[in-house]
C-alpha cells in the first residue's frame, strides 16, 4: 500500500476523534458576566486541547505510515541485493556461489538416498565467432537466449547456472542409468543448437558437454566440476555438439602442460 493511500483515512479518523468530544452549546443563563467569561474560557481551552489531540494523533499516524513504508522499502532492497549476490547479472541464472551451495545440498541428499547426480559442463561452439562478427551486444543476447532454453531443457528440480563467458554448468539430481543420462544430454544439445533469431539475424551454434557423476568421479563439488571440465575439453576436440563422460584415463590438458 502506498503512503498516500495509507494517509487517506486520516480525515475519517479526525472526525471520529472529534465527534462528541467538544462540549455542547448551552443556552445563555442569568449568570454573572464573570461566570460567562469563565465558561467561554473553558470552552476555548477545551477546543484548543481537542485540536491539539487530533493533530497529535494525525502526526502519530503519519509517522507510523512513514516507518512502515521505510521498512518495506528496506525489505525490497535487501531481497534485491540477495538476488544480485546469488545470480548472474546477464542471464539471471544462479551464479557460481549459488551453484556450489546447491551441489553441496544435492550431494548430501544423494548420500542419504543412495542416489546419483551428474554435473554437466557446457561450452558453446562458435560463440567467439558471433562476438567477432556481430559484436558483444549480440553475444550477450545470445547468452540470454541460451540460458532461457537451458531452463526449459531441464527439470524444475535441476539447476542451470552460468559459469562465466560462454560456459554453463548444469546440476542434474537423482539421475537414472547412463543410457537415460545420455538421452538427457542429447536433448539438451538439440535444444541449445536449434537456430536463434536475434535482431532479425539467424544464428546457429553448438555445444560441447563434459559430464561427471557422483559418487563415481568425485564426492565433493570442486572435484566433480573439475572432472566435468576435463571431459568437456575432450568433447570439444572431437567437433561440434559432442559430449563425453569423464573417465580417469582421458586426456587432461592442464596436467599435460605441466609434464
TrEMBL record:
<protein>
    <recommendedName>
        <fullName>GGDEF domain-containing protein</fullName>
    </recommendedName>
</protein>
<dbReference type="InterPro" id="IPR029787">
    <property type="entry name" value="Nucleotide_cyclase"/>
</dbReference>
<dbReference type="Pfam" id="PF00990">
    <property type="entry name" value="GGDEF"/>
</dbReference>
<feature type="region of interest" description="Disordered">
    <location>
        <begin position="21"/>
        <end position="41"/>
    </location>
</feature>
<dbReference type="InterPro" id="IPR000160">
    <property type="entry name" value="GGDEF_dom"/>
</dbReference>
<feature type="compositionally biased region" description="Polar residues">
    <location>
        <begin position="26"/>
        <end position="41"/>
    </location>
</feature>
<dbReference type="InterPro" id="IPR052163">
    <property type="entry name" value="DGC-Regulatory_Protein"/>
</dbReference>
<dbReference type="GO" id="GO:0003824">
    <property type="term" value="F:catalytic activity"/>
</dbReference>
<feature type="domain" description="GGDEF">
    <location>
        <begin position="115"/>
        <end position="248"/>
    </location>
</feature>
<dbReference type="InterPro" id="IPR043128">
    <property type="entry name" value="Rev_trsase/Diguanyl_cyclase"/>
</dbReference>
Amino acid at each position: 500500500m502506498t503512503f498516500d493511500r495509507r494517509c487517506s483515512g486520516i480525515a475519517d479518523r479526525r472526525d471520529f476523534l472529534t465527534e462528541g468530544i467538544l462540549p455542547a452549546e448551552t443556552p445563555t443563563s442569568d449568570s454573572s458576566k464573570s461566570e460567562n467569561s469563565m465558561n467561554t474560557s473553558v470552552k476555548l481551552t477545551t477546543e484548543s486541547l481537542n485540536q491539539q489531540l487530533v493533530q497529535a494523533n494525525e502526526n502519530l499516524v503519519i509517522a507510523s505510515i512513514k516507518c512502515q513504508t521505510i521498512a518495506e522499502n528496506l525489505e525490497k532492497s535487501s531481497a534485491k541485493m540477495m538476488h544480485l549476490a546469488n545470480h548472474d547479472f546477464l542471464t539471471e541464472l544462479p551464479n557460481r556461489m549459488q551453484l556450489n551451495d546447491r551441489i553441496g545440498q544435492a550431494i548430501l541428499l544423494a548420500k542419504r538416498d543412495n542416489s546419483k547426480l551428474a554435473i554437466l559442463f557446457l561450452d558453446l561452439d562458435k560463440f567467439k565467432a558471433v562476438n567477432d562478427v556481430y559484436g558483444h551486444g549480440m553475444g550477450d543476447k545470445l547468452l540470454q537466449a541460451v540460458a532461457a532454453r537451458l531452463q526449459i531443457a531441464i527439470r524444475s528440480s535441476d539447476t542451470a547456472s552460468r559459469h562465466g563467458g560462454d560456459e554453463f554448468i548444469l546440476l542434474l539430481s537423482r539421475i537414472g542409468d547412463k543410457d537415460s543420462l545420455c538421452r538427457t544430454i542429447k536433448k539438451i544439445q538439440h535444444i541449445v543448437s536449434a537456430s536463434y533469431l536475434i535482431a532479425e539475424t539467424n544464428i546457429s551454434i553448438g555445444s560441447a558437454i563434459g559430464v561427471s557423476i557422483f559418487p563415481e568421479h568425485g564426492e565433493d563439488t570442486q572435484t566433480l566440476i573439475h572432472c566435468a571440465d576435463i571431459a568437456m575439453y575432450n568433447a570439444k576436440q572431437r567437433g561440434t555438439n559432442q559430449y563425453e563422460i569423464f573417465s580417469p584415463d582421458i586426456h587432461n590438458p592442464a596436467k599435460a602442460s605441466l609434464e
